[in-house]
Amino acid sequence: MRRFPVRYFFFFALAVIVVIAASFATVRATGQTMPAVGELAPAFTLPSQDGTQISLSSFRGKWVVLYFYPKDGTSGCTIEAHNFQRDQEKFDAVNAVILGVSVDTPDSHKNFCTKEGLTFRLLADPEHKVVESYGSLGFMMMKIASRNTFLIDPQGKIAKVWTKVQVQHHSEEVLAAIAEQKK
To answer: Which 3 state secondary structure label does DSSP give 118?
Structure first.
């Protein structure tokens, strides 16, 4: 009788270790090319949390903060979204729009926005087409978006790229980059 609890604990501990290790091991898919600074940003149209189709081309003349994130409702993604929301007025003041992209569904985005009070657009890419075109498809037990951000200038070109973003101060980094680019 005692062997079962020990064996159960062993397998449970092993499963926990695998999950934790996987959370630190997001890997870009092979064959992906990330757009470089100076290149035209890959065009896209994706549904947002309210079901409307959002196209990159509709934001010509504005700065676009296109940030990719792994999953609605997770701790890092929630911190990143809250910081962008906190600075929304600052982004508005510099003529910048924030667009978050993950492989979650529009309904998942809607629930996330409602729960967290987010007013900017989150775009759903469950087929991974846009995530892949920006070289941001990763794996963590399943296909996810890697935490990368692309600053797109008003002419539609990539102005700056951040990979493996640290969420705590990222919003401020993006605002500083826009200010630097405008000089």
So the answer is: coil
CATH code: domain 28-181 is 3.40.30.10
> How many CA atoms are closer than 13 Å to the CA of 89, on its beta-carbon side?
1
Extract the residue ranges of the chain whose pLDDT is less than 50.
Answer: 1, 18-30
* DSSP SS3 for 175: helix
Tokens standing for residue 15: 């499963």
Of the listed 41, 77, 131, 151, which one is catalytic?
77
Residue 113: active-site member: no
* pTM for the predicted model, two decimal places: 0.82
Burial of residue 127, with CB atoms counted within 10 A of its CB: 0-12 exposed, 13-18 middle, 19 or more buried: exposed
Residue-wise pLDDT tens digits, 111-153: 999 999 999 999 999 999 999 999 999 877 788 999 999 999 9
- Return d(Cα 173, Cα 158) in angstroms, integer: 16
